[in-house]
Amino acid sequence: MIKVGIIGVGTVGASVVQILKDNQEIISARAGTEIVVKCGVVRDLSKDRGLDIALSDNINEILDDAQIDIVVELMGGVQEAFEVVKLALQKGKAVVTANKALLAYHRYELQELAADKAFEYEASVAGGIPIINALRDGLSANHIESIVGIMNGTCNYMLTKMIQDGVSFKDILKEAQELGYAEADPTFDIGGFDAAHKLLILASIAYGIDAKPEDILIEGIEHITQDDISFAKEFGYSIKLLAIARRMGDEVELRVHAALIDNSEMIAKIDGVMNGISVVGDKVGETLYYGAGAGGDATASAVVANLIDIARSGKSKPMLGFNKPLEGGLKLKPVEQMESKYYLRINVRDETGVLAKLTSIFADSKISIQTVLQRPSKDESANLLISTHQSCEKDIQSVIKQISQLDFVNSTPVMIRIKE
Amino acid sequence: MIKVGIIGVGTVGASVVQILKDNQEIISARAGTEIVVKCGVVRDLSKDRGLDIALSDNINEILDDAQIDIVVELMGGVQEAFEVVKLALQKGKAVVTANKALLAYHRYELQELAADKAFEYEASVAGGIPIINALRDGLSANHIESIVGIMNGTCNYMLTKMIQDGVSFKDILKEAQELGYAEADPTFDIGGFDAAHKLLILASIAYGIDAKPEDILIEGIEHITQDDISFAKEFGYSIKLLAIARRMGDEVELRVHAALIDNSEMIAKIDGVMNGISVVGDKVGETLYYGAGAGGDATASAVVANLIDIARSGKSKPMLGFNKPLEGGLKLKPVEQMESKYYLRINVRDETGVLAKLTSIFADSKISIQTVLQRPSKDESANLLISTHQSCEKDIQSVIKQISQLDFVNSTPVMIRIKE
Asked: Residue A276: which of B292, B144, B138, B288 has the closest Cα?
């Protein structure tokens, strides 16, 4: 029998307890042994959680219990969780976590600490989709060329509704908050930080590359309007918040931002709160994984799968996919050297000569324009919607800066990258 | 160092050798050890395969070599492959196979023979998509409610082209054969048998249910015409060859047939030669896996992933997902008791009273009609395209039989099931 202690019994923790109870028979048959929760640790013991497990408000009840084989860390946060998980490993326990922030900051230290212990974290990326499993085991024969993921359900829900129902960002954010899809402070989701944490975890498995959230390009979806969506529709694009890891030579790009994606791509077809991750391997080609990226049961499904895996085989694979990092390794590509196609929305005073002046700035910076669309806006202004051919980030930022300073330009242009 | 012997060095075998060479460094870093091919066995030694491995035409060179740890079986066929794999296991070797026919017939015997040996077969279903991995490990916390897969690239390519380009079945079959997507004798693919073999493997992992191809409903795509496709387009459906496993109570449905699928479903969006498998778990909800289902490199990607997995952890999980089958277990649902919505194409002489007579047969059999579309056909005949509400297979078969016997009906009606 495998005994489990859960630290943090909120929505996901309660679902873990419930799944182990509901699916007890099939889980035992698959794991080859019974898996039981011996103790749950919570901050507030007075709250009735409707669960028939022993609860405590003292973490040491789990850490010091020699009978507990696996600690499930669901407390969230970074520093305290790191200390707790470290202690659990030192005390010889296996660890399962759903904590993406913990891993975004401490995964390499944890890999070292867990050298001879099982440490699993399937639930930390894309909830119930077994993407860690696929990337670390299923695609292990491949050099990974790229990972392109829709890994934040809140953003995908909002963008899908903006496209399908024509509502504004502000209105759909309010609705998402009322539905419980977005937090009261939605910054972590709509600013791209949640997706960035997940991307860093996947990038370590794919490339063995170390980076912190501070090191990579992270943009959100706050600037997207119906003008952008009408441009997208006109040219056969969808708009998604993408988390992208891409290898080019001995450099790896890591970036999170909104992107226009051709509607024919599979990743463009993932709508609503669902997540989807496209992984291209040098041998397997494109594979894609789709499912619920959040929610108690979907996330707990991944936690329990890790418990079953540890029950079956203990420590069976390197935590981040590599037993030893590759010599030399890959470097993070500086943001200003990244290349992309770009879309710019420029709000200008509607007067003669504006387009000529603007396009000459693009030409001087050697940025080649692909399409131009002019739409009337309010108050005698006009929106110029311009897309470019492949250009360098440094050059487009310079163009945006120059354009912002023109007297007939009403506000800083909005830029969205176009996925090739 | 892990030493491998490959029995059958055709397209996939050559790709396995090539991947182990091309990606040697990253594979060693992931496996924690080097994986080398010591010997390949082929039928015809005189053929130049351009590979720098030792070749033999004697299977015993692999089976009797105590240095070889893993036997990769890529010879195909059922009975001879079974004997070879059995011998390999008896001689203490781990086995990796891509042979779906072998598993469709002998997987439970193999699971017993491999009780204490690693036996892996990721490449046997959907080529490079790690679906065995996902189903057996990633979703192990779930009762599987359904598996709905597009698992034959030949059929999906042909149906996609028929829908997109309006070509006939006969013409697209010829094109697929010229492109190498279809065999000279295409029966195994277009008759649904290939998909059925794969379905049986997945059904064992999901449900622990034993069945042979002969036990389940297998239909192909040979009967599909542009009339059916125009109906599908009119009502927002796509047409796909689906392999379906579905649990209802203590029964499991297993069936392979063409189906009309609502265009909003993810599985309807998988086009061309690609494969996709939707798996619904009771806790995780719907997940979907997409990628190349065939081709040397994609299939070999899965074979090599299995080699890495065995190098990492040896025998770490039960071959078919269950350490012990569930007591009692689930039963195969008889075909005549299955339920579905149906579409019928009935070619009739274009004369008065025909529709009244036909619809009365439906009414007498208590089958409720959902839509009727009448289209002119050649030679003063008409095509009646009728879809029904949820009905029982026994009843629809009885209706088809009655309709076939009417004097104004020109040929046996064509039936396509509609996926709810």
From this structure: B288
